[in-house]
User: Fold this.
Amino acid sequence: MNAPVLVEFKDVEKRFGDTVAVEAMDLQIRKGEFLAIMGSSGCGKTTTLRMLAGLEQPSAGQILLDGKRVDTLRPEERDTPLVWQSLALFPFLSVVENVEFGLKMRGVDKVARRERAMDWLGRLDIAEFASRSVDQLSGGQRQRVALARALVTTPEILLLDEPLSALDANLVVRMQGVLSKLQKDLGITFVYVTHSQSEAFAMADRIVVMSNGRVEQIGTPEEIYREPATRFVAEFIGTNNIVSGSVTSVDDRHTTIQGDGVTLTATNGSTALRVGASATAVVSADSVRLNAAPSDAVNQANQIVGTLVSEAFVGSVVTLLLETPAGEFRVQTRQRDLAQINLEHGAKIALSFTPEDVFLLPDTREGG
Amino acid sequence: MSFALPGLLWQLLFFVFPMMFLIALSFWLVKNYRMVPGFESVNWVKMYTRGYFWDAYFYTLMLAAISTVVTSILAFPCAYALAFKASPTVRRWAMFLLIIPFFTSYLVRAYSWQIFLGNEGIFNGLFSVFGFGPYKMLHTMFGTMVGYLTLCLPLVVVLQLLSLANVDKNLVEAAWNLGCGRVRTIFQVIVPLAKVGLVVAATFCFILSFGDFVSPYYLGGSKPPTLSILIIDTTKSGQQWPRAAVVAITMIVTLMIVAFSAVTYAYARRTRQ
Assistant:
């Protein structure tokens, strides 16, 4: 997609005293896209969002919204509504008064703003609670009130700061659906800050992975998953297996690296590696195959024998954790494919994967 | 039940019993400067039919109301700045400094204002340097107000600060985020959130001002008299303790009504529109 740019961060930096929260941030957010900013706590993702809303001033750099500089504007002078992690609903106002708030501030008259607020409550299926007080609602209902309150002024962009983190698991999935549909129907830009991969992967068109105040990678969920730009990103995606090694041979189709007790051959990617260079191989857990009986030919490339340590069932998907000479390996597979495998702890299981499933990235000794 | 017993006993001994005595006293008689127990309504009738009693009553109500409004308004910017603008260190020191006035007797503090407010006082001395004055400040309502502020301002700032410091900063930011300007946010969001503390602070100010006699006596010159001065005058002239009891009971009932209404208002849930 090549929609026009709505938001642009130009070399933005934010310091709090001696601490650098965000640095060298260059980011373009396109009109109508669902962008997730993902990272662990303290990585600068929330600060980035707050700078966009005007709740923090950048220490250096510029932020443009629709081509105009906004980093010098006060929060109330921007149209960048935010959905707070704590939701920040006004407890002294009723549900419908909360939703009306933004319209009231814009001087919309009483009848019109009540009508628009009720319309939004209806769209989010909570019209029946309009005159209730906020603390009489359930978590999911309050979530919808916060969304309605932010969207009632029909902004071009909606900012969300971990809005689902307080909800229980099945409600999270439901709200993900609500958010995705809302974003598609409205066609406005969503910027969604989260520490949860599953939320980012489920909803986002593009994901920004941040660590220590820096952008590690910007890409589609597919790119983040299959082609991590840095070791940090590869590790952050918890289902990746990572093997460090050095390059032993390079031909026109494949690159081979030698790690501890395993040889990996990968299809050449965009980055060319030299023989002798150190590199990191990434194999995602769902591309590893299980072979019941360990063959003697384990010295072949892309094969390794592991000892089963534990397994976790989540619905129909099983994650096995194995101890191998190259470190821990995770294997994700469907439960029905496990029929012929001995699942006793301590059992030896042979693992294999194809060169297409091995992704190599050069060791830059940075970030991770 | 047994746990509640001491509390109940104290309540009886130090509150209910003196109140009963005060009520009984208001029905006694004074003969030849001596109190005679009895049950006569004459004190109530005499006080409640006198114009000067009601003049004093409404004057006292007015003074306390003005004091409450002026103190609350003066205290708010200070409490707001300490709650939202000051660093934690500054806030801690400010809180400490606000407690210091209570080290010294209020009587001494009010009395010392005479040196500043008198016709030959420090303020008029300063004004005369610039060719102004002298202005009559001592023994006026202005003097009384200065005394009430001395009494109430530090306490009201502390109480307001405590309630403002508990305001959820996310809600303030949420208001800005939804297009609410700085000043408007104070009235639309911060004041409603801190309502209970602000009302309780104002109530304390009203109660202290309503019952105070030091400021109207030393700085207001007793004219016109407030209810507290009326009590002093009544007891001094002819040992009329029973009539003073009538005034006292009226004051207590008034404060009970005010305090109850204030607390009810503070905790009132907003009704549906």
Observations:
- The interface with chain B takes residues 53-55, 74-76, 79-82, 84, 86, 88, 90-94, 97, 101-102, 105-106, 131, 133, 149-150, 153 of chain A (CB under 8 Å).
